[in-house]
Specification:
This protein is α/β, with parallel strands linked by helices. It is 39% helix and 12% strand. The chain has helices spanning 24-37, 55-65, 72-90, 97-106, 119-128, 153-161, 176-184, 216-220, and strands spanning 11-14, 110-115, 138-141, 169-173, 188-192, 206-208. Strands 3-2-1-4-5-6 form a six-stranded parallel β-sheet, sandwiched between helices. Helix 7 links the parallel strand 4 and strand 5 (188-192). The relative contact order is 0.19.
């Protein structure tokens, strides 16, 4: 009996930012620089409540907090310009991320990325870290769903793309909003404490310190 036969889990859905890539500091720095260009001084921690919800909410939530009206489309475009300049020299995969993805492939699991980020960012990140979009069975971005995390829509869309039922999927997440989305989708969720403290991730089925600490058995759930 193979590992996949011993469990109902047949697919794994990975969040991207904060799970596969250490991109949170980069998008944070880019957003701060964008606000600074507009004369608004914001702090890195201002963005924490909006991590994992997509760039519209990430930028819009902080603007609202500071009582600053922004043109979201223009602000997002400028933030991405700054971000993409950083990617080639500063963006890396988390240690163990690529090997876990490969282990999942070897185990015969179907694999998806489900990120609240826009397509331009998702594709740039995946190419940079050597896990390009075409190497996955499915890639779903924030532009493809109406309701972002903590709504379950993006994970449900990913399970449909994988041709699997929700309870046949496990999710790897780093953010509170993402864990809530996975549980709302009725999926197993393994969290990594790479962005938030472990105690904040308690809604997940299992919490590991890093993605390198996750095993196939963690994902399958025994």
């Amino acid at each position: 009996m193979t590992m996949t036969q011993a469990s109902s889990i047949c697919g794994v859905i990975f969040d991207m930012d904060g799970v596969l890539t250490d991109s949170e500091p980069l998008i944070n720095a880019a957003a701060i620089a964008m606000f600074q260009e507009r004369g608004v001084l914001v702090r890195p921690e201002d963005f924490l409540p909006f991590v994992g919800t997509g760039e519209d909410r990430y930028l819009g939530g902080v603007a609202q907090k500071h009582g600053f009206a922004i043109d979201l489309r223009e602000a997002k475009q400028r933030t991405y310009e700054i971000y993409l300049e950083m990617v080639p020299s500063r963006l890396v995969a988390f240690p163990g991320a690529k090997s876990l993805v490969q282990e999942c492939r070897t185990a015969g699991l179907r694999l998806a990325v489900a990120s609240s980020a826009d397509t331009i960012k998702v594709h740039a990140n995946l190419v940079q870290i050597g896990l390009p979009p075409e190497s996955w069975h499915a890639v779903v971005t924030g532009e493809e769903v109406k309701d972002k995390k903590p709504a379950p829509d993006i994970f449900l869309a990913a399970s449909r793309r994988l041709d699997l039922l929700p309870d046949q999927c496990a999710v790897v997440e780093d953010a509170v909003n993402g864990i809530q989305a996975a549980k709302a989708a009725r999926m197993r969720c393994v969290a990594v404490a790479q962005t938030f403290r472990p105690e904040l991730l308690a809604e997940a089925d299992l919490v590991r310190a890093t993605i390198g600490d996750i095993s196939i058995s963690d994902l399958l759930g025994g």
